[in-house]
C-alpha cells in the first residue's frame, strides 16, 4: 500500500508536522507499505538542515531521517523553498527540491493521501 503525507505547517509551533512525521515513520516500518512525504507551504521549513532544538524536544530533521532510513522519500515544494530563501544547500540530507508536477504524480501513485 502506498501512502502520501502532505505536510503544510511549520516544523515547530504546532504539532501537526510532528504528528504527520510520527505516523509516516511508523508506517514506513510496516512491511508492504511505501511512504512519501511532501513538504509544502510553511512545511518546507521542516527540511532545513542542522536544526538545533532544546534538549528533550523533538527534532523534525531527525524524524524525517527515520522515514528515509526505512525507504521513504521526502520532496520539498521548490516554490515554497524559494519564498523562504532556502537553497538546495540548506536542505536536509536525503530530501530533494520538488515540484507541483511531482506532487501530482505522487498523489496518483498513492493509495492513501493524508494531509496535515
Structure keywords:
116 residues, alpha/beta, Hypothetical Protein Ychn, Chain: A, five-stranded parallel β-sheet, 4 helices
Secondary structure: elements and pairs:
Blueprint: E1 2-7, H1 16-28, E2 34-39, H2 60-69, E3 73-77, H3 78-83, E4 96-98, H4 100-109, E5 112-115
Helix pairs in contact: 1-2
Could you please describe the fold and organization of this structure?
This protein has helices at about 15-30, 60-70, 80-85, 100-110; strands at about 1-5, 35-40, 75, 95-100, 110-115. With about 120 residues, the chain is an alpha/beta fold. The protein has a five-stranded parallel sheet, with helices on both faces. The chain has four helices and five strands; from the N terminus they run βαβαβαβαβ. The chain has a single domain, classed as 3-Layer(aba) Sandwich (Hypothetical Protein Ychn, Chain: A). α1 (about 15-30) packs parallel to α2. α1 links the parallel β1 and β2.
Summarize the structure.
With 116 residues, this protein is α/β, with parallel strands linked by helices.
CATH topology grouping? Hypothetical Protein Ychn, Chain: A
Strand count, sense and barrel status of the largest sheet are: 5 strands, parallel
Question: Could you give the count of β-strands?
Answer: 5
The secondary-structure element order is EHEHEHEHE
Number of helices: 4
- Using the CA coordinates, give the radius of gyration: 13 Å
Average predicted local confidence, pLDDT: 97
What best-fitting shape do the alpha-carbon axes yield? Answer: globular
